[in-house]
Amino acid sequence: MKIFRITELNAVLADWDEQFFPDGTEKFFSVGYIKKNGEFVYLKRCRRAGLRFSMKMHDMKAAEPVDIHGKAIGHVHPIWIHSIVFFRSNIEFSLLCT
């Protein structure tokens, strides 16, 4: 049985904002979230991205799916931060719940 550590949203968002490790390698993560229409979306390997509006004002983050070499393979997904179900970075697994 695996035990997952419940992490606060602030810790997840801080980890999301880091783009590179101290040695200069790019940081990737996986994220699962629920869209407005109720559809569950899982992005297995992605990196942080930007959007063309104020993400801070709208409580949004963006993720871009990438392949094993770090090249973009899909479109940028805008994600409302309160709809994130789970987040897994290269370092730790974080399960968000209410």
Count of helix runs: 1
Instruction: Spell the H/E element sequence.
Output: HEEEEEE
- DSSP strand tally: 6
Strand order of the largest sheet: 4-3-2-1-5-6
Number of domains: 1
Q: Would you mind describing this structure in some detail?
A:
- The protein is mainly β and about 100 residues long.
- It has a single domain (about 10-20, about 25-90), classed as SH3 type barrels (Roll).
- The chain has one helix spanning about 10-15, and strands at about 30-35, 40-50, 60-65, 75-80, 85-90, 95.
- Strands 4-3-2-1-5-6 form a 6-stranded antiparallel beta sheet, covered by helices on one side.
- A hairpin with a 3-residue loop joins β5 and β6 (about 95).
- It is globular.
- The two termini are about 20 Å apart.
- The mean pLDDT is about 80.
